[in-house]
């Protein structure tokens, strides 16, 4: 990622004007999205309820669009494969018990389910609409016999999950849509459900300038902010440099419990 990209403030009026002048064909779609989001925020002041409504709106048009802002099935497939291949190269084994936060319609989850031993995949999401789409994916891929667990959730306290159970926790493009309080809640509780030696991988929209958000949907964080916040809850962070070489504009961190002494 270039320095200019990482210091850009997408919320600033100057950036929005420049972007509109360079991409006039995208202005109508952005205006419609801004109007929709403003209306939904009025109806749902709580962020989880608000973003659930955003997902419902996107999923009604296309489940693939709801999890990747693109209606291209090829791109949906490509992004799922990229997540899967990366995690397998970086420690995931069939014997692992895995929790995927924001599993969506199983863009990557269908590959994880097929790879893991039966019953070892748990997927959670805030959107009932997208979980119905996930069931459709299971049927289409013929994965019913792998007995995956798909659960609707309202928060990231993981209160219904057992202690020290998951070897791998994975969240792709979740924190990029999460305000600070949601990330803090996740960090406060994820350590409890990690098995000894387990790790938590997540992507985020990285900025090296001012932290900001756009339309209360897209949030940009400095790496240091997330590393310091994780440390407050006994989690050590490693920046996954090689993820940066892949065709994806988000960055990735891996968290492990400091008490493990593992470098993952």
Write the layout of secondary structure elements.
Blueprint: H1 3-7, H2 13-22, H3 27-43, H4 47-61, H5 63-68, H6 73-89, E1 98-101, H7 109-115, E2 121-125, H8 128-141, E3 149-152, E4 166-171, H9 180-193, E5 194-206, E6 212-214, E7 218-221, H10 223-231, E8 235-239, E9 251-257
Parallel strand pairs: 1-2, 1-4, 2-3, 4-5, 5-7
Antiparallel strand pairs: 5-9, 6-7, 8-9
Largest beta-sheet details: 9 strands, mixed
Give, in order, the helices and strands: HHHHHHEHEHEEHEEEHEE
How many domains is the backbone divided into? Answer: 1
CATH architect. name? 3-Layer(aba) Sandwich
Q: Give the averaged pLDDT, no decimals.
A: 89
Keywords: Lipid metabolism, Methyltransferase, S-adenosyl-L-methionine, Transferase
InterPro entries: CFA/CMAS, Methyltransf_12, SAM-dependent_MTases_sf
Pfam family, one: Methyltransf_12
GO molecular function: methyltransferase activity
Structural features, described:
One of its GO terms (biological process) is methylation. GO terms for molecular function: methyltransferase activity. This is Class I SAM-dependent methyltransferase. It holds the Pfam family Methyltransf_12. Residues 99-200 form the Methyltransferase type domain. This protein has 264 residues and is an alpha/beta fold. It has one domain (13-257): Vaccinia Virus protein VP39 (Rossmann fold). 43% of the residues lie in helices and 19% in strands. It contains ten helices and nine strands. The chain has helices at residues 3-7, 13-22, 27-43, 47-61, 63-68, 73-89, 109-115, 128-141, 180-193, 223-231, and strands spanning 98-101, 121-125, 149-152, 166-171, 194-206, 212-214, 218-221, 235-239, 251-257. Strands 1, 2, 3, 4, 5, 6, 7, 8 and 9 form a nine-stranded mixed β-sheet that branches. Strand 1, helix 7 (109-115) and strand 2 (121-125) form a beta-alpha-beta unit. Helix 3 (27-43) packs across helix 4. The longest helix has 17 residues, at 27-43. It is globular, with a radius of gyration of 18 Å. The mean pLDDT is 89.
